[in-house]
Fold:
Amino acid sequence: MNDKVNNNVMNFPSEHMENVRILEALLFAASEPLDAESLKARLPKGVNLNKLLNIVKAHYENRGVNLIKTGNKWSFKTAVDLSPMMKKEKIVQRKLSKAATETLAIIAYHQPVTRAEVEDIRGVHFSPGTLDLLMELNWVRPIGRKKVPGRPIIYGTTERFLEYFQLEQVSDLPGLEELKAAGLLESRLPPNLDIREPVEIDQSQIEPFGEDENIEDLIQSGHEAE
Amino acid sequence: MNDKVNNNVMNFPSEHMENVRILEALLFAASEPLDAESLKARLPKGVNLNKLLNIVKAHYENRGVNLIKTGNKWSFKTAVDLSPMMKKEKIVQRKLSKAATETLAIIAYHQPVTRAEVEDIRGVHFSPGTLDLLMELNWVRPIGRKKVPGRPIIYGTTERFLEYFQLEQVSDLPGLEELKAAGLLESRLPPNLDIREPVEIDQSQIEPFGEDENIEDLIQSGHEAE
Amino acid sequence: MEDISVTYDTTNDPVGSSQDDLIVNLEGFEGPLDLLLTLAKSQKVDLMKISILQLTEQYLEFIAKVRDKNLELAADYLVMAAWMAYLKSNLLIPREETGEELSAEEMAERLKFQLKKLEAIRLVSEKLMKLPKLGNDFFNRGMPEGIRLIRTPEYYLNLYDLLKSYADQRYRVAYSSMTIEKPPVFAMEDALIRLQRMIGDVPDWTRLEQFLPTEFSKGKSARSGVAGTLAAAMELVREGVLEVQQLVPFGPVFFKNKKDDSFLN
Structure:
C-alpha cells in the first residue's frame, strides 16, 4: 500500500511537491477562502501558483474533498455529490446556556430535587424550557414524587449524564474541598457557602410514578404539583 | 494530468473508492476528531473501517495534510514538518507557567494521580488556579476516586491533551519509558532502593470509571438506542 | 535510565553561581524542594550519589544567609530547615534503630529519591512542551463544514464548565444572601405614622422612649428607634401639632400634644 501511495506522490514533478504540500496545508488550515495574493504571500517566492493550484485541483478532482474556486478565492470543500449527506444534518454546535448549565449543576449536586427547590437554590425562577432542554438532552429526568404534601415531581441526573461527563457515579463529582483545591472556588469563602457533597439518590425518599401517570404529559403541560 | 490523477484514484480497489471518499469528506467536514463508532455510523454497514482508514492514512502520508490518530479518534491535521511555513496561522498561546507545566507533566506521566501526590512530588502546595487552568484547557480531568480513606479524586489527561500534543496514546509520551525504567514513576521509595522494573499502575487501588474505550462503547450504544 | 540520570547536570541552572545570586533569586524557587534540588545539582554528581550531609550544610547555610539579610522566608523553608538539622544530627550520631521510625540513612535515601523524581519531572515536562503543538506547529481544518454525527448532541458542555458554574453560582448566592442582611432601620416615615397615631393620647410631657416600638426599644436597634422618632417629632413640631422639650443637654427628651395644650389654655 505504501509503495502505491508513494508512487502517487511521485507522479508530481518533485520540484513542485514541497510547494504542493504547503499549498494543501494552507488551504486546509485557512479560516476563509484565500485569493491568489494571500497564497503567494505564504508560498516561497517565484512559485507558479496557477500551476500548483491546477496540480492540487486535479489531484482532488475525484476525491471526497475538492479544491473549489469561488470568485477569485480558493478553498477545499467536501465533494458536491457527497454534500447532501453532509448538509442534510449539518448543524451548528451550541454551548449550553449559563442558566441551563447552572440548573444542571444544581440538579446534579442537590439531587433529588424538586423544581421549586432548584429555583430556591438558584434564587431565580426557571425560564421556561430550561428543564425541557436538559431532559431533551437526556441529562436530567423526573424520577418520582417527593413524599410531602403536594407530591411534587423530583428530578435527578441520568445515566447518559454520567456517560457524557465520563463519571462513574454522581458521588465522583468534586465536593467543596476539592473544588477549592482545584481553584474553582476562591480560597476565602463566605461562611454560609452551601456546597453539597453530591450523593447517590436514596430511593426510599421517593415515591415512584404511578403506572397510569403519563410523565411526558405532566411535564409538558407544566401541571406538576408545586 | 487528468489521466494521471485518475490513475492515482484507480489505484484504490474500486469497491473501496466510494467509501474512501465518504470517509475523507466526513473527516474534513468534522469540527473535531471522530472515533470509529461515529465514522461507522455514517458509512455503509459492514465496511472494514480499519482498512479504509489505513488507505486514507497511507494516501495522505506524504502530503500537506495527514490523517492522525489521537486517543481513539481520527482527524486530519496539517503536516508537522510544514510548521515553519504556517507562521501566519499560528494562534497566540498563553505560555504555561512552570507550576502548570510541571503539574501537567506529573498528571500525564503518573496518571491516575491525586492532588496530594502531585503536591508530594513538587514539594509545594497547589497554587490556586493551576489545576483550574489545566481543566479549563481541557487537558486534565477528574477520572475517579482512589479507594483509600477520604476517597480523593484522581486526575488524568483527556483526549484533547493527546490531540494537542499529537500523541496517539499516553504511552507515547516522550521519556516515559526512561522514567519507568528508572523506577521514578513509583509513588513510594523502593524499600531497598534498587532500581526496579517498572510497575504498572495497580488497578486494584483505583475505583475506575472504566477504560476509555469501554466508556465510548457505552456512550455509543446508549445513544443509538435513543 | 541513563538519559535521566545523566542529563541533569547538563542543565543550565544557576548551579555554578554563588549563593548570593541564589538568594536574590529566592522568589524564583518553587518551595524548599526546588531550592534543595538546585543546591544538590551544584555537587555535580548523580542525584542518587549526592552527599546528604553536604546538602544539609548547603541548605542550612543558605537559610542562615537569607535570614541575615532579613528577607522574608516562607514557613515551609523553615520547616525544611528544622527537618534537615534533625536529619544531620541523626546522620552524625547514628542511633539505635527502633524499628518504627525510619533510620537517618533511609530518610536521606528518601530525600535523594524525591529530588531525583522532581528532576525527572522537570526533564520530561521540557520534553513534553517541546512536542509539536496544535495551533502552533500543526493545524486543524480552518473551515469545518460541520456534520451531525449520531453521537453529537446539538448542545455541548464540558465538565469544567459544569463544575465552574456550580462553584460560581454557590459563591454568588452566598454573598448576595449576606448583603441582604441589612441592619434594621426605624425609618422616619414609619416613625411619623406611629407618632401621629399615638400623640393624641398624650396631653402631658412624655419621654421619647415611651413612643418606641418594641422591636426598636432595646439594644443596638434602639438607636435607630430614637433617631427615627426624634426626626418624626421635629416634623410634627414644624406642622405645629407637637411640642418637644429637653431640659439639659443629653438629657431625656419629652413630647407633648400641642393641640390639646392650646385647648386647655
Notes: The CA atoms of residues 23 and 209 of chain B lie 31 Å apart. Confidence is low (pLDDT under 50) at residues 1-10, 189-203, 208-226 of chain B.
